[in-house]
Amino acid sequence: MIKQLNTIPERLIFSEKAWGDKHPQLGQMLVSYAKMEMERESYDKAHPLLKEALDIQKHNEQSDEELKATQKLIDECEDRIQRASI
Amino acid sequence: MSNTNWQQIETILDQALDLPKGQRQKFIETECKGKPELKGEVTQLLESIFDSEGWLENLEDYKRDMYDELADGIKLLSSDKSPIGTKVGSYRIEKKIGEGGMGSVYLAKHSSSDIEHNVAIKIIRSEKATSENIRRFKHEQKILAGLHHPGIARMYDAGTTGDGYPYLIMEYVNGISITDYCNQSDCTLEQKLNLFIDVLQALRHAHENLVIHRDLKPSNILVDESGNIKILDFGISKLLVDDEDSSLTKTGARLLTPRYAAPEQILQENITTATDLYSLGIVFYQLISGQYPYNFNELSRYEIEQAILKQETCKPSIKVTDPKIQKQLQGDLDAIALKAIRKESIHRYRMANEFLEDLKNFHKGLPVTAREDSFRYRSQKFLRRHKQGITVTAGFLLLLIGLSSFYTWRIAEERDQAQQQAQRAEIQAERAKQVSDFMINIFQSNNPENTPGEDIPVSTVIDAGIERLNEQELSPVNRATILGVIAQIQIKLSDIESAQQLSSQAFNLVMDSVDNHNLGTLDVPTIYGQIAYQTGDFSEAVQAFQIGDSLFKANDLTNTYEYRALKYNLVNLYTEQKKYEEALRVLDILNPETWGDDKESIIEKSDFYNYKAIALKNLGKQREALLIYKKALEYRLEAYGPNNPEVGTIYNNISSLYISLDQYEKALAYAEQAYIIRKKTLGPNHNLTATPVWSLSVINRNLNNYEEALKYAEEAGAILKETLGSDHWRYAITIRGQAEVLIKMNEFLKAKMKADEAIEIINTHYPSNHAFKAHFNATYTNIYKGLEDLDKAAEYYSRAIDFFRKGMG
């Protein structure tokens, strides 16, 4: 009789995740970076970062609260860009 | 790990990291083809690179480390002084528990008072333990270590002490000899027979794995408090057999316990399975009669040997004074005992199976082979079984057909009915027996090259077996099973190439027919798949497992351990390939809640839930994974109790899961439990103890307990620096961890110093574009934000994000 294999490295649970290029940590980092750029009033730099972050959050079915917060930042950026262009 | 190995690992790892994520696994498989250990090391390091917030190590690593450490301690012992009180690894040698011609046995207890784990350390101090014997023994130790049977005490490790004596680390069995147990517990004859059947089953397992004990005696067959038997010291006497012939060989036999030695051992003839069965026969005789078969009192060793060779012994029933027991022994049991200790091995039981069958038949009231196969004897058996029914019909039938033909007919009819009812099971059992018998029979091979008394290497036995297999006319199904069994032994001997060849032949034979398979043949696709998996041929392995799956279903054998073993292998493979959905689909077919409540089933359930939790976690289903992990924990606690490494691993993993869910309060409780167990089992300064310490730092950092977080990061760092060295990446990560805590404490300059210290370690050992630096980008981002250098911060943000998109994502 074959003894079952017991070789699954448990550390695999911390390995490269199965999220592909939609890693939640990437979403978080994009939001942080965007916030820093917003503080520096670089709204045009922050805007694409936030859009990408929102995509990732939606893909990962993150909470409505998180999605709303990111959307709010996007709105703010768009508003500032809009006003700057007038 | 040797330097060469490390350089090899580093080269492959660096090249893999330069490739896009999707191509890495395939690259590693190609580079490490046929080198499973190298592949494991590279994969392990690759996984670890992306893991800086929690470290997990699997249980196998943990156990290996524990016994390695213990072995390192034993190697330092010398014969000059008593080892009692010496600390070896996490164990302390407590006392001597045995002393004999071959050396001493010590009990070593785990140094923590809360952990109840003991091992027996046998140090063999004998001139017969020559370097050649030790070399041969070490080779075969791989097989001994692979003997997994509840009735066989495990061997964990073996080696030589500082002054060159062999030592063995074995499972400690707290029990008494089988004969003392039966006397003290006042066992009935039935209880004695049941215990003896357990012994025979364990011995059969060893013989099937080509291991002969050579020194069976009551003191090597213990019974523990729960009434379970354990055979000790398998194969150890081999260490004490001389390589040379001439007069020296005599001493080889003299070292054996003469009271239980078979005539062929005294005559220095070939040792076979029948030799072990002779020794067990003497034990059996003693058990049932309470007396040793010969009267050796006041005899010299020479006279004892002569008695074993020449003296005939009486039936065990004659030695008994109690008339009730005497009656029970008369007939079958007398015959069984005498057959077991026949002087000519050819007339003895040659296989444990035959001995077992006779005892089982005795239980059922069926004829035993030990008795003369006479018509009279068989008729008596029949009459006893059918006492009531026969009295009415007998007279009538006697007139018609005569006693002889009647009995013959009824016996045949009875057998036919039984066969009809369980024809398939019987055919399969018979096949399994044939296979087992063949394996054991290759011991009996009269290889002309074997001189009397010569020790035959396992590889020679296997070669002889294959040769004999080719000469025999066997059904394809049986041939396949035998090839599969031999392939498994070759895997144990690390002869993967031969194992691959044989298992491939076996697999082709199995695929020739869909039905008429038994569990032996159905193991073949699993064995073949395992070998393909080990050599990196994943697609071949998947195909083998899938074919195996279909065959199990076609033969209606899915509710078996073997079927689940096939499934676990498939899960393991999918997990390695990161095909978690497929892994989960395979697991969902199994229903662990129907597997029973014995310890083995409980362990199996805990493994099942562990696999499932890993798959779920990797699919991003952390919450579901958490529930499943808790089930695994529940079963592990039930199987092992709270203070056990198996349980510690699960605590650690649950803690890490809570970390990833940002539930730090809960993570804290589990990490603390893991830390307690690790500290107790491995000691506070072991590199594996650093794992939960590091988790405690991460948790406390996220709970804003910065002082605590810093303390734990420093503690983990100190352990790792001491155990793995100051240039190890794990040590570097704890330094980065300290930087992270200092950032939270708004100590940005101090944080930068720590981050610089850590990155220097990484820079020295890894290429400039190495993935290790990913997390450092994020750390520097926060440092420069704190230092209000936003341009620098933006630069590091871009690098970190770029890394996530290209490397980790």
How would you characterize the overall build of this protein?
- The complex is a heterodimer of chains A (86) and B (809).
- Chain A is 64% helix and 0% strand.
- Residues 1-20 of chain A have low confidence and may be disordered.
- Chain A is mainly α.
- Chain A is built from 3 helices and no strands.
- Chain A starts with 23 loop residues before the first helix and ends with a helix.
- In chain A, helix 1 (24-39) runs antiparallel to helix 2.
- Chain B is of the alpha+beta class and 809 residues long.
- In chain B, the strands form 2 sheets. A 6-stranded antiparallel sheet of chain B has the order 1-2-3-4-6-5.
- The longest helix of chain B has 35 residues, at 387-421.
- Classes of the chains: A mainly alpha (86), B alpha+beta (809).
- At the A-B interface, helix 1 of A face helix 3, helix 22, helix 24, helix 26 and helix 28 of B.
What attributes characterize this protein structure?
heterodimer; A: 86 residues; mainly alpha; elongated; disordered N terminus; B: 809 residues; alpha+beta; six-stranded antiparallel β-sheet; three-stranded antiparallel β-sheet
Major sheet of chain A, described briefly?
A: none
User: How much beta of chain B, percentage-wise?
Assistant: 5-15%
The share of residues in helices of chain B is: 55-70%
How far is it from the N-terminal to the C-terminal residue of chain B, by CA?
A: 31 Å
Number of helices of chain B: 35
Structural class of chain B: alpha+beta
Tell me which protein chains meet in the greatest interface and how many residues each side has: A-B, 35 and 65 residues
Mean pLDDT across residues of chain B: 76
Mean pLDDT of chain A: 76
- Note poorly predicted spans of chain A: 1-20
Topology diagram in text:
The complex is a heterodimer of chains A (86) and B (809).
Chain A: H1 24-39, H2 43-59, H3 64-85
Chain B: H1 3-17, H2 21-31, H3 36-49, H4 59-75, E1 87-88, E2 91-100, E3 103-110, E4 118-124, H5 131-145, E5 155-160, E6 166-171, E7 175-177, H6 178-184, H7 189-208, E8 221-224, E9 229-231, H8 248-254, H9 263-266, H10 273-289, H11 301-310, H12 316-319, H13 323-329, H14 332-340, H15 352-364, H16 375-385, H17 387-421, H18 423-441, H19 458-471, H20 476-492, H21 496-510, H22 519-534, H23 538-554, H24 561-576, H25 580-589, H26 599-618, H27 622-640, H28 645-660, H29 664-682, H30 690-702, H31 706-724, H32 729-744, H33 748-765, H34 773-786, H35 790-808
Antiparallel strand pairs in B: 1-2, 2-3, 3-4, 4-6, 5-6, 7-8, 8-9
Helix pairs in contact in B: 1-2, 1-3, 7-10, 7-15, 10-14, 14-15, 16-17, 18-20, 19-20, 20-21, 20-22, 21-22, 22-23, 22-24, 23-24, 24-25, 24-26, 25-26, 26-27, 27-28, 28-29, 28-30, 29-30, 30-31, 30-32, 31-32, 32-33, 32-34, 33-34, 34-35
